[in-house]
Amino acid sequence: MLEVRQDSKPVRRRKRSVTTEDQTILRQTIIDVARGLLATGGFRAATMKAIARQADIATGTVYLYFPSKADLFAEVFRVVSGREVRAVAAAAEGARPAIKALEAAIRTFVDRAIRGRRMAYALIAEPVDPAIEVERLMSRRAFAQVFADVIRSGMATGELSSQNPDIVAAALIGAINEALVRPLSPASEALEEHREEIMNEIISFCLAAVVR
């Protein structure tokens, strides 16, 4: 009987282990996808299943990185609001005197909110979980700090009269957010038509509040 000899055995390929870099990249991908869905459909549209589907991963994998939707979107909120605060701060730093810096900061805030309408509405007005609401409050404080610094600068140079910068800045942020809620709402159809009017009215109101 002829014996057939096999000179080689099948080679088993080792699975590549997941590195820390892989995990970091996947985590960032989840955040980016969540941010994109938030920008187009708000918190309601950005479900964990939708995020997993768009990221081409299992829903369970999303939960490995973020235990809940609130945890994920608290992180998204930090990322997005941090970017917006930096943009407003840069606008203020690039303008002088103080009243022009404040105008530039407000204009940048409103203009970016209008251009990113759906995202801005989600960040400003949509009902959210308590963990996300904490981030919303932190974001408002960060914006208020930018405004307060400008007001302090104006007081130091004598351009602005004595006032409490922190209270005034917080009031300005509250007023701006409230003024934008209705125009940014998905139900509003006249935003682009009244874009300049909305921006100019908000700026005029805010500047009148600090120039006494």
Automatic annotation (TrEMBL):
Keyword Nuclease: no
Occurrences of domain HTH tetR-type (ranges): 24-84
UniProt KW Thylakoid keyword: no
Entries under PROSITE patterns matching the protein: HTH_TETR_1, HTH_TETR_2
Cited Gene3D superfamilies: Homeodomain-like, Tetracycline Repressor, domain 2
Gene Ontology molecular functions: DNA-binding transcription factor activity; transcription cis-regulatory region binding
Protein name in the entry: HTH tetR-type domain-containing protein
Annotated source species: Candidatus Entotheonella gemina
Lineage: Bacteria, Pseudomonadati, Nitrospinota/Tectimicrobiota group, Candidatus Tectimicrobiota, Candidatus Entotheonellia
